[in-house]
């Protein structure tokens, strides 16, 4: 192992070890409503940005996009590697009920640090939208709705130590690892088969299915054993969120990959187009600017 890589790994582990989860939980519990103001400002900036760019030339931004997506890919992969072992242990060694009812995930070990860091990554990921607007690509409702609601639900739930969150965190990291790697390779003009983008959207739909299932499980254990770290209020919010995501992602998949089957003539006429990348939903048109 190279010395610099070993040093980075050691520094990361040291950071995880000194992380004070209890202070982090106290901080988020007091400050989480700020995400509502942040989300509102984000939506206003999205509308203003679209208006501002309406009569202007689009920016290419291929290299900045590759760097941005690459950084988020590395972050997501690292988060997956460091947080997934705890979920594996919870499910296969402690039992499924433990995985949806015990909040230990947020208190000790690498998972505590990476669950906290993920909250702030949701604020950073709003930058995805800037690339879409500046490159004058279609911005669908799913994109900004997903970004805003994940950011606010995550910060709201963290302070409550909702145990099903261990599933949400690991799934989010895992899907984003593949998604941002895909974006990076497309930005670097690698040819990626359409089946890969279909696989990413399918994995996102499955992520929502698992989110719904774990919520029902939490509700069951809360109702019949009253020993499960969740609440009816949080379950209701999560269920509404994951159900809406499922519907939107399924509609996106149907519209892009099933309903939309361009003719050969349209495909030839579109060869001077651009790649249409929607964060948390992927569609390929071409790769000129990638």
Automatic annotation (TrEMBL):
It is a multi-pass membrane protein. It comes from Capitella teleta. Keywords: Fatty acid biosynthesis, Fatty acid metabolism, Lipid biosynthesis, Lipid metabolism, Membrane, Transferase, Transmembrane, Transmembrane helix. It holds the Pfam family ELO. One of its GO terms (biological process) is very long-chain fatty acid biosynthetic process. Residues 277-290 have a biased composition (Low complexity). InterPro entries: ELO_CS, ELO_fam. This is Elongation of very long chain fatty acids protein.
